[in-house]
Amino acid sequence: MGATYIKLGQFIASAPTLFPSEYVEEFHKCFDRAPPVPFNDIQKILREELGKPIDSVFDYVDPNPLASASIAQVHVARLRGVEEDVVVKVLKPGIEDILVADLNFIYVVARIFEFLNPDLSRASLVGIVNDIRASMLEEVDFIKEAANIEAFRRYLVNAGLTRLATAPKVYQQFSTRRVLTMERLYGVPITDLNSISSFVSDPETSLITALNVWFGSLLACETFHADVHAGNLWQLRDGRIGFLDFGIVGRISPKTWAAMEDFLASLATEDYDSMATALIEMGATNTNVDANAFARDLQKIFSSIQNLDTEVVVAAARGPNNATAISANIAVDERQMNALFLDVVRVSESYGLRFPREFALLMKQLLYFDRYTRLLAPDINMLQDQRIYIASNRRTSDNRVYQ
Prior knowledge:
Elements: H1 3-13, H2 21-26, H3 39-50, E1 58-61, E2 67-68, E3 72-79, E4 85-91, H4 95-116, H5 118-122, H6 125-139, H7 142-158, E5 165-166, E6 179-183, E7 187-189, H8 193-199, H9 203-220, E8 224-225, E9 233-236, E10 241-243, E11 249-250, H10 254-269, H11 272-282, H12 291-302, E12 311-318, E13 324-331, H13 334-350, H14 357-376
Parallel strand pairs: 5-10
Antiparallel strand pairs: 1-3, 2-3, 3-4, 4-6, 7-9, 8-11, 9-10, 12-13
Helix pairs in contact: 4-6, 9-14, 10-11, 11-12, 12-13
């Protein structure tokens, strides 16, 4: 059906607060790699967007894409004259027009359904469609993604964290709504244990740095990175943590963060009464909630979190010198991750609670980090370790927090 419906499926899969579990689980199939667009089409877009011959900007552009997704693909290139390696993210041809037309159609259909069925109006169907529309159109505007990257880089500078973490520099003069030219960072996903050990002596320290930098951004940055899967969180060759791909970001309100902070504190101490209170504060409801019963139900759910297993895939490859190269990567089971969260949402909804989407985004990233902790630092408790700072009174400019 095209890119709109792939992105719609991805949105549903990433929003377990809004959709039934069967839909969330099924639409995870939309995260598979998309077929690439022919390089001739990519060259045409580059010429149109840059307003000059490609070879006047780049020494070369690799015709084979480094990555291909539903709305864009990425090519490796080198800037002319400065000999700097870059990656160029190019919006696939016609995607924006297709998205606008399809999303407007979906919006009209939603309005008709609400008119015909008042129950859908009470479920805020049009509001959900508007949320989807805003999220998807923002993702195809690379000017906004560039602004997200620059905001994160400013946060790192202001907090004095540039020695510890980075995001790719954006080449604004070679970037437009449909083309994003960025510094090429060299490293490996944070889950590649074998390669990480050749870059840093202590992967646990790298994980703690990544956690503190990300938690700090919740408070000190305009947006937070809302897609920290292993492909977007790298251990760089120079020892820093690299945050990649800012197409999906979140914005958290002070009220939601205050409730989220209480929720995390209660989760760390297994205080389910406080957890229930925090979730009630966060969730919109028109009914009186039995906090004691809600706490008992939450205890049943979260007691199962210890049973969530991290699947480690070990691949062995024969090298030319007959040596065996071993690399270990975490296989994050999206279904398993969502199952826990869906249980929380399902029980919460039975008490009349409906959470903001930002809560879902935050929880998803915490589940990612939980997996990384199990792989890289299995002996630490992410929510209780004194080296990891979550509290709102933290001073992100104090580098002692990150060491």
